[in-house]
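[step 3/7] inverse_fold.run input=structure_tokens len=173
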């Protein structure tokens, strides 16, 4: 049924060529006037120049592109002097302090301190113990194994020593 509708529409849409019996001949100028006179009004108006195709912006060379202008900065007439703030009198920052147990004192002027940290696990809330060992400088070799000591952070004294003994909190029995 759809094919029949298509056939009907194509037959209706296609124009049928009818024979034209009376064709009108093209107008010719009267015999008294020359053929050039009829063309003169058209000659008076100059032939319009063919319009140039519009150039795309991205195809323009860099020199022909529109330039973005920035506002010019006004220059200062005289320079301002450099003002330096006075250095603060206090220490650079708070030095870190840890408290731990001496594990080894076999080295000269150096002790190894184990510092334990107890934290609750973020998800499971179980208490987890972690420990870290620090090498600390003990100038007088006064700390012994098992002592509870307080150490403070200091400048690097060797490859591994960045702590020093501040005080012995509790002597080992």
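[step 3/7] decode complete -> sequence:
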């Amino acid at each position: 049924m759809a094919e029949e509708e298509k056939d009907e529409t194509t037959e209706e849409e296609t124009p049928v060529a009818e024979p034209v019996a009376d064709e009108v001949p093209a107008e010719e100028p009267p015999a008294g006037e020359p053929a050039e006179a009829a063309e003169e009004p058209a000659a008076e108006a100059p032939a319009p120049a063919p319009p140039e195709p519009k150039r795309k912006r991205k195809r323009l060379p860099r020199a022909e592109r529109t330039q973005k202008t920035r506002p010019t900065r006004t220059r200062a007439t005289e320079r301002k002097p450099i003002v330096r703030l006075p250095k603060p009198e206090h220490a650079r920052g708070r030095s870190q302090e840890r408290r731990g147990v001496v594990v080894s004192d076999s080295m000269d002027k150096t002790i190894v301190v184990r510092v334990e940290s107890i934290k609750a696990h973020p998800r499971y809330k179980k208490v987890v113990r972690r420990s870290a060992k620090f090498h600390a400088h003990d100038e007088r070799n006064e700390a012994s194994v098992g002592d509870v000591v307080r150490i403070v952070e200091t400048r690097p004294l060797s490859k591994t020593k960045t702590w020093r003994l501040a005080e012995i909190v509790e002597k080992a029995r």
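[step 4/7] annotate
The first helix runs from residue 2 to 13.
The mean pLDDT is 79.
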